[in-house]
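About this split. The held-out portion is used to measure sequence recovery: a designer receives only the structure tokens and must propose an amino acid at every position. Recovery is the fraction of positions where the proposal matches the reference. Here is one held-out target exactly as it appears in the evaluation file.
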């Protein structure tokens, strides 16, 4: 069961879709509206053999590589859990100081096992901060178990994200973004 009034949204994406680009553009639009999105977004896809996994802390503009130093492992690059923990600490502080939205990098193996950014999601929801999380379609069943069905499932499309956000700001009494209308619409 999905809760259509929930402040937790899963942005479900298939292989070949780019939730990062979508969320970066969405966060930039919120910032232009004077809102404060907090979060971590990858800048590019992780492919097998990729040399880096760049990510951006939205609220600070800090960029860093989520992979460990390649020299540390001969078998290839691995997620740097210490860097992820540092990012989580920055985001937890930012949510506590006031955020309009939390964007979580991904729901992956770390979160499924209760690590990674899992506690940050709980912290944000406890602080009444809406959360959107990109969830790969192949992990959606795991996600539903993790959140006990209490989420909104969004297609990986800007219109779906905008519609969810409009419901959140309307229900929560947040200041909605100004409506831009052309002359014809205004005169109707």
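Reference sequence for scoring:
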């Amino acid at each position: 069961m999905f809760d259509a009034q929930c402040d937790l949204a899963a942005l479900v994406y298939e292989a070949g879709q780019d939730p990062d680009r979508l969320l970066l553009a969405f966060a930039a639009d919120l910032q232009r509206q004077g809102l404060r999105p907090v979060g971590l977004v990858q800048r590019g896809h992780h492919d097998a053999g990729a040399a880096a996994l760049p990510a951006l802390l939205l609220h600070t503009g800090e960029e860093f590589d989520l992979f460990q130093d390649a020299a540390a492992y001969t078998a290839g690059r691995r997620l740097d859990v210490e860097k992820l923990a540092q990012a989580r600490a920055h985001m937890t502080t930012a949510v506590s100081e006031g955020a309009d939205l939390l964007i979580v990098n991904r729901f992956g193996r770390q979160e499924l096992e209760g690590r990674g950014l899992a506690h940050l999601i709980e912290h944000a929801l406890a602080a009444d901060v809406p959360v959107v999380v990109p969830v790969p379609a192949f992990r959606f069943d795991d996600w539903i178990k993790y959140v006990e069905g209490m989420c909104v499932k969004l297609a990986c499309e800007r219109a779906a994200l905008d519609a969810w956000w409009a419901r959140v700001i309307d229900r929560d009494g947040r200041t909605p973004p100004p409506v831009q209308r052309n002359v014809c619409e205004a005169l109707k």
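Annotator remark: The helical segments are 19-32, 81-97, 109-112, 118-126, 140-146, 158-172, 183-187.
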